[in-house]
Design goal:
20 strands, single chain, 7-stranded mixed sheet, alpha+beta, 420 residues, globular, 9-stranded mixed sheet, Purple Acid Phosphatase, chain A, domain 2
Length: 420
């Protein structure tokens, strides 16, 4: 199959709809096919653990394995058990006869692991073992949170060298992630190449800075539009002030500029995907990003306020699209199936055992209430991560069906958790 290139750009009210010309007949047939296919979706892995304490929590490193040898940049604190288990996990996905594609929803290490080139290379090398194409959207732990001292931000080793790449500067670490995991715009990772359209290839000429967002991609398959946007967990890199020891005592210009510029680019990319899906008559849209934009994680409501532009845009575009829209994210670590854009919608969540589910005890709609009548044609999946057993969600797309909302299906989408 030839590479899919954005040969035609259409502007509507100043927003790109990125109508890409399909390079050959195979591309067109895949986008319009009625063939059912499945995706293995996971995130927040491989994870590490925290330094041991007297309380001995489950996510702490075993004594004697706190530090993993790295490079001259310094050690990586963390647990290597998930890294060691990843080859078998990848092999299990490779053996799954239903899976044609893999998606990683971000966070390639824990929030207590140093951000180094060597660690990123370890994950990259592991991912070369996938036989199917791999689509990846970055998480906060590999760039926005690198500035935190527990991830090595501003920390120096005994040789007075910063242990983190670029001292943990978020913008520099995002540039590192892009150079390593997105070396060629529009080309996926993994063993078998899949060509997608990157925002770096199809950006609005009125906003040339959008070309930086090589990680934002879209593709059409089996009459469904898939779109990824770089939305990091925590607070969209806006509420957490960068490490005072490394980058100053208050929010700096680079932090404010980064969040504002990326948010605007993401929203334009969402608009492009929805406009393209409408123009092509797609039956559904799937949005993939890292942040659980409804998860307070013990913080006050103001901590997630910076996700309001994304949720408002998704709600409005979904209402207008009037067909099924599925959002898939990681970040909060527990599998969850719900509709946070609908008040009192049915919701199930992974239990403490990590293998079973139960009814949710909270309603995420309360954290970002939009539209009194809700958005009924929306659904959200949070994929499991960070803890054993390693598992993935097998997301199946069948354009020939339009299922009502259940705990395991919605429109052309159905899903099940797989623990190899």
């Amino acid at each position: 199959m030839k590479k899919l290139l954005p040969l035609s750009i259409l502007l509507t009210t100043g927003v790109i709809t990125a109508l890409p010309a399909l390079a050959d007949r195979d591309d067109y047939q895949e986008s319009q096919s009625e063939r059912s296919f499945s995706i293995a979706v996971y995130g927040d892995a491989p994870y590490g653990c925290k330094a041991p304490t007297a309380a001995a929590a489950a996510d702490e490193c075993p004594v004697g394995s706190i530090f993993v040898p790295d490079s001259a940049n310094g050690p990586i604190p963390g647990d290597t058990r998930q890294i060691a288990a990843t080859p078998a996990f990848i092999a299990a996905i490779n053996r799954d006869p239903k899976v044609d594609l893999v998606i990683h929803t971000g966070d390639i290490h824990s929030g207590s692991t140093y951000c180094t080139l060597a660690y990123n290379q370890t994950v990259f090398n592991l991912w070369t073992q996938f036989k199917d194409p791999l689509v990846y959207t970055p998480g906060d732990n590999e760039w926005t949170d690198c500035q935190k001292s527990k991830e090595g931000g501003g920390v120096k080793n005994s040789s007075n060298e910063y242990v983190d790449y670029a001292a943990g500067h978020p913008v520099a670490n995002l540039a590192l992630v892009r150079s390593m995991f997105f070396p060629e715009a529009g080309k996926t990772l993994g063993g078998r190449t899949k060509y997608v359209t990157s925002q770096a290839q199809a950006f609005d000429p009125s906003h040339p800075a959008d070309a930086e967002y090589v990680e934002n991609v879209l593709w059409e398959q089996s009459q469904v539009m898939f779109v990824t946007i770089n939305v990091p967990g925590g607070s969209n890199n806006d509420d957490d002030t960068w490490n005072t020891g490394a980058f100053g005592a208050t929010k700096s210009g680079p932090q404010i500029q980064e969040a504002a510029q990326r948010t605007a680019a993401d929203l334009r990319w969402l608009e492009a995907a929805f406009a393209l899906a409408k123009a092509h008559g797609d039956k559904a849209i799937a949005i993939i990003e890292q942040a659980d934009m409804w998860d307070l994680d013990g913080a006050p409501m103001t901590h997630i306020a910076n996700y309001e532009p994304f949720i408002a845009k998704i709600a409005a575009l979904t209402k207008d699209f009037s067909k099924p829209v599925l959002l898939v994210n990681g970040d909060s670590h527990k599998f969850r199936s719900d509709n946070p854009l609908q008040n009192n919608a049915a919701c199930i969540i992974e239990t403490a055992t990590g293998t079973d589910t139960a009814a949710c005890t909270d309603d995420n709609y309360d954290n970002h209430p939009y539209y009194a009548d809700g958005v009924a044609n929306f659904h959200r999946l949070v994929v499991h991560g960070s803890t054993f057993p390693l598992q993935y969600t097998r997301l199946t797309i069948n354009p020939r069906v339009n299922s009502p909302v259940t705990a395991t299906s919605f429109g052309p989408f159905s899903w099940e958790r797989v623990i190899p």
